[in-house]
Write a structure and sequence with these properties.
The complex is a heterodimer of chains A (252) and B (12).
Chain A: E1 2-6, H1 9-20, E2 25-31, E3 34-40, E4 46-53, E5 59-62, E6 66-71, H2 72-80, E7 87-92, E8 98-104, E9 111-117, E10 126-127, E11 135-140, H3 141-152, E12 157-163, E13 166-173, E14 176-182, E15 191-194, E16 198-203, H4 204-210, E17 219-224, E18 230-236, E19 240-246
Antiparallel strand pairs in A: 1-5, 1-7, 2-3, 2-6, 3-4, 4-19, 7-8, 8-9, 11-15, 11-17, 12-13, 12-16, 13-14, 17-18, 18-19
Helix pairs in contact in A: 1-2, 3-4
Chain B: E1 10-11
Classes of the chains: A alpha+beta (252), B mainly beta (12).
Chain lengths: 252, 12
């Protein structure tokens, strides 16, 4: 038996919004310690890893490890029927082919129960190696979203260059070019830790997709090392994270 | 050229 109750549906909506554009279907791996998800996008260019500890939930019970195959578009449709301040309980019996979602209004005078068909997804898990990132940048999540949006107007590729002076985002296309540079600020909203400078090139549309997680967190952490995937991490309150890994582009 | 994430992360 798996049962988890969140006091606010809004958090679940934000998490699903952060996933649904890059993943149409995915498996939630539920265990005693919490809920995990790991999946590649269809093109196998990026990887999403999510972790939510059990103490995020008002009530959490997972008697045995369980994998719930979900169609995230369908889940989104169900979540649209709920109000953000509803409490939500998700429940699935062992070996069940359905997920139950129950929404309870804040005034507790309305309950709505939904059943969502589970999918049998054959999802392989990848081993993510421990990486000592040469550059780690923290910045406001809204600033990162704005930069990704602005650069994608110019070019399909975005170059991210990180040095001790700051982080620079560049795009160069037919209509022209753009360079946006952020330096470390004294008020601490942008911080740059650099062991060695790194410059890598990425597909801007994936970066844009990652920024769907912006409502989850005020800050985003960007980590880079030479010739390895970029890591973009959004914390989920104090209870977990969504991490997006993006393979770099290389010169042919 | 776009690299695949599987060229960095291998199946468990």
């Amino acid at each position: 038996m798996f049962e988890a109750r969140l006091s606010s549906t809004a958090l679940l909506k934000k998490i699903v919004d952060a996933l649904k554009e890059i993943l149409h279907q995915s498996t939630l791996d539920c265990s005693d310690s919490g809920i995990q998800l790991q999946a590649m996008d269809n093109s196998h260019v990026s990887l999403v890893s999510m972790s939510l500890r059990s103490d995020c939930f008002e009530k959490y019970r997972c008697d045995r490890n369980l994998s719930l195959g979900l169609d995230l578009r369908s889940l989104t449709k169900v979540l649209k029927c709920a109000s953000g301040d509803d409490a939500v309980t998700i429940k699935s019996a062992d070996k069940a082919d359905k997920l139950q979602l129950s929404f309870e209004s804040a005034s507790m005078d309305r309950t709505a129960d939904y059943e969502l068909r589970l999918l049998n997804l054959d999802q392989e898990h990848l081993a993510i190696p421990e990486t000592d990132y040469a550059c780690v940048v923290h910045m406001p999540a809204t600033e990162f979203a704005r930069i990704c949006r602005d650069l994608s107007t110019f070019s399909e590729s975005v170059v991210i260059a990180c040095t001790k002076d700051g982080i620079k985002f560049s795009a160069n296309g037919e209509m022209g070019s753009v360079n946006i540079k952020l330096s470390e600020t004294s008020k601490g909203d942008v911080s740059v830790q650099v062991e060695e400078p790194v410059t890598l090139s990425f597909a801007g549309r994936y970066l844009n997709t990652f920024t769907r997680a912006t409502p989850l967190s005020e800050k985003v952490k960007i980590s880079m090392a030479p010739e390895v995937p970029l890591l973009v991490e959004y914390p989920i309150e104090d209870y977990g994270y969504i991490r997006y890994y993006l393979a770099p582009k290389v010169d042919e | 050229m776009q690299k695949s994430i599987t060229s960095f992360f291998k199946p468990k």
